[in-house]
Structures are given as structure tokens and as C-alpha cells.
Automatic annotation (TrEMBL):
Gene: tpiA
Positions annotated as active site in the UniProt record: H85 (electrophile), E133 (proton acceptor)
Pfam families: TIM (PF00121)
Species per Swiss-Prot/TrEMBL record: Natrinema longum
InterPro entries found in the cross-reference section: Aldolase_TIM, TIM_sf, Triosephosphate_isomerase, Triosephosphate_isomerase_arc, Triosephosphate_isomerase_AS
Organismal lineage: Archaea, Methanobacteriati, Methanobacteriota, Stenosarchaea group, Halobacteria
Protein name as annotated: Triosephosphate isomerase
Keyword Hydrolase: no
Length: 214
């Protein structure tokens, strides 16, 4: 299972969380990664943790003030990027362009979507993975894998119908090892989570709990 920890703009210490991700990754067969804010990418990557960006834009080098260039994210040490997170929604053409930009920079891609229908559309754009996240469950602590299992199973089916090579993650409310196991039982190959680790008093203990049953 892939456990991708998105730090959003939570007021956590990104280096401490990254060091915990790095250390717990060494204890488990699961794959762990952390997605800090863009300004923190280089320092986080220097910890040795697998580092992802939260977003890249559909742009190339040039006159694009305030945008995030995929090559710059890769130069900072990121190996992958989220695209179209629920809190950073893009138009369809911009999702497509962001996937192309990420591929140009050799970044792995996870395109997020609200529901199974959008997952099918996202899979058609050829990312490495898609992540289904019902917005209403994000940040609630109520895990999608247990509160709304149908949405995960339907997302897995939708992606497989379009492109069997696109793996499916699920996210929203995931915070325990049981939640991760439930996600795997529904066909997800990973989870995307944030508050369960970024807002935990002890992020390393939270990560250890997440991977303990895997
Ligand atoms: O990127 C992570 C997701 O939006 C899930 O957030 P959450 O784990 O706080 O529910």
C-alpha cells in the first residue's frame, strides 16, 4: 500500500513529519511519502523522505508569475505531485496540462477527484494514479473506506474500465491502520491522508499505527 501524507498548510513541522515518514518507511513493506508546501520541498526532500508536491501548473518555463513549474518542483527534490486536489481544483484542460507538465519533468502523478465518474475522466488523462476523495469527509476523521465503501469500489471499477494501468488511492478521514486495511480490501492501492498525521500530537506514532497491520 502507498501511504501519501499531504501536509496541506497545516501548522506542523514539515521536517519532523518528513523524518517520521522516512523512519517509519524503513520498518514496513508499505510505501510512505510526504507532500509539503512548495516552499518546503527542498528541505523536506533533504531528509531522505519520499517527497511529493501538492500541485503543479499547466505551464512551461516563461512568463507565468505565481505559478508552480513542474521542473522546479522536481529540481527541489520532489518525485511526484498531486494534481486537482479538492482544495486546489482545476479545469479539465488544466488537469490535462498539469499531467503533461509533470510527465515532462519525470514526476509521478496522482490526479484527485470527488467521485467515481470524475475518477473515470481523470484516468482517461493517463496519470499514474487517481485518488477518490468525497469532499464532505475530508478532515472529518470519518474514513471514506468505512463510511462510504461504495465510492471506493466504484472508483476502482471506473478507473479499471478506462485504463487498468492507473492505480486508485482513496482519501478523506483516513487515520488508522484499520482504515488503510479497509481501503485495500476495497481495491485501493493506497491512501491519501492529511489531518490524521499532520494534526497528530505524535505524527510518528500516527504513522506507525497506519502501517502496523500492513
Ligand atoms: O489530501 C488529503 C485529503 O484531503 C484527506 O484529508 P484528511 O486526511 O484530513 O481527511
Amino acid at each position: 500500500m502507498f501511504v501519501l501524507v499531504n501536509l496541506k498548510t497545516y501548522p506542523c513541522d514539515p521536517i519532523a513529519v518528513a523524518e517520521a515518514v522516512r523512519d517509519v518507511d524503513e520498518t514496513t513493506d508499505a510505501r510512505l511519502a510526504v507532500a509539503p508546501q512548495a516552499a518546503q520541498l527542498e528541505r523536506v526532500a533533504e531528509t531522505g523522505a519520499e517527497t511529493w508536491a501538492q500541485h503543479v501548473d499547466s505551464i512551461e518555463h516563461g512568463s507565468n508569475t505565481g505559478h508552480t513549474l513542474a521542473e522546479s518542483v522536481a529540481d527541489a527534490g520532489a518525485v511526484g505531485t498531486l494534481i486537482n486536489h479538492s482544495e486546489r481544483r482545476l479545469k479539465l484542460a488544466d488537469i490535462d496540462g498539469a499531467v503533461r507538465a509533470a510527465q515532462r519533468a519525470d514526476l509521478e502523478t496522482v490526479v484527485c477527484a470527488n467521485n467515481p465518474a470524475q475518477i473515470g475522466a481523470a484516468a482517461a488523462l493517463g496519470p499514474d494514479s487517481v485518488a477518490v476523495e468525497p469532499p464532505a469527509l475530508i478532515g472529518t476523521g470519518t474514513p471514506v473506506s468505512q463510511a462510504d465503501p461504495d465510492v471506493v469500489e466504484d472508483a476502482v471499477d471506473a478507473a479499471a474500465t478506462v485504463d487498468a494501468d492507473v492505480s486508485v488511492l482513496c482519501g478523506a478521514g483516513i487515520s488508522t491502520g484499520d482504515d488503510v486495511v479497509a481501503a485495500g480490501d476495497l481495491g485501493a492501492e493506497g491512501v491519501l491522508l492529511a489531518s490524521g498525521v499532520a494534526k497528530a500530537d505524535d505524527p510518528k506514532a500516527a504513522l506507525e499505527d497506519l502501517v502496523e497491520p500492513l
